[in-house]
Amino acid sequence: MLRVGIVQMRSTDDLEANLAAAETLVSEAARADASWIALPENFAYLRREGTPFPCAQGLDGEILGAAAGWAEQHGVWLLAGTIPEAAGDGRVFNTSVLISPEGAQVAVYRKIHLFDVDLREQGGDPYQESASIAAGDAPVLAEASFGRIGLSVCYDLRFPELYRAYAKEGARFLTVPSAFARETGKDHWEVLLRARAIENQCFVLAPAQWGAHGPDRSSFGRAMIIDPWGLVLARAPDRPCVVLADCDLEAQDRIRGALPCQSHRRLF
Predict the structure, then answer these.
(1) E strands within 16-112?
(2) Is 111 a catalytic residue?
(3) Ranges of each domain in the chain
(4) Which residues contact 259 (CB under 8 A, 6 or more apart)?
(5) Tens digits of per-residue pLDDT, 120-149?
(6) Of 3.40.50.920, 3.40.50.2000, 3.60.110.10, 3.30.450.20, which CATH number belongs to 2-260?
(7) By three-state DSSP, how is residue 28 classified?
(8) 88-108 tens-digit pLDDT
(9) Known catalytic residue: 186?
(10) Which residue blocks in 169-245 are alpha helix, DSSP H?
(11) CB 163 within 8 A of CB 196
């Protein structure tokens, strides 16, 4: 049995305040005996749409240095949701990093699918992530002491072929740190998360941003942990918080044995 904790935040463009809030929530999860804790997308810095990233940095910068310290202090695995990693062309990568209990960077994933959409018909705004964010170009399957983890970020959730590739390579867990838009989240968030869990028979960890981050940007929230049968094990209320769940890996094996859909798969 593996106890996991996922964090829901309401980050802003105040780096120091965000890091302090994240540290508090990580500590809360660790005190509740979580051995793996996951932070949301943009946990350290969530800007207004169209503004620059003054805290863009490398993998050896302040943000991941702080996250590594938290992991080592509490002796936990930690998913640093995403950070703005300097890309070298004036843009950033939206980068998710898995950190070991020793504070080492085990895996680095750069968000592949970018949120270039127009939600005005749904009451939202246009987004053009590719104007300031560079796309990653490769899936990343991480090796942890408790199994393989397929890494992804937010909008990646809409592209099932990414998760199928992870399942094919033996992933037990899928991570989806997110700042999901309110307009899409209310109809699509839970449906897509549960679908990815069911079709790949994986645990899905989806830490999330929630609430108003400023005058012109809000996130849906409802961070979730979902089991390989598609059942929601934990769901965050509408506030910054930690939610926890115990992931039964033996039950996952039984599900996969009873309903071996991966071996039944046919390609056309």
Answers:
(1) 36-38, 77-86, 92-99, 105-110
(2) yes
(3) 2-260
(4) 201
(5) 888 777 788 888 999 999 999 999 999 999
(6) 3.60.110.10
(7) helix
(8) 888 999 999 999 999 999 999
(9) no
(10) 182-200
(11) yes
Among 66, 189, 178, 200, residue whose Cα is nearest residue 111: 178
- The H-assigned helical ranges of 146-212 are 160-168, 182-200
Buried b (16+ CB within 10 A) or exposed e, 123-152: ebeebebeebbbebeebbbbebebbbbbbb
For residue 81, give both structure tokens. 């949701």
Identify the bridge partners of residue 128 per DSSP, sorted by sequence position. 116
> Does the annotation count 154 as an active-site position?
yes
The vertex-106 CA angle with 25 and 256, nearest 5°, equals 85
Q: Which residue in 85, 111, 129, 202 is the catalytic one?
A: 111
Of these residues, 55, 85, 129, 154, which one is catalytic?
Answer: 154
Please pick, among 41, 85, 129, 183, the residue that the annotation labels catalytic.
41
**Rounded Cα gap, residues 108 and 121, in angstroms:** 35
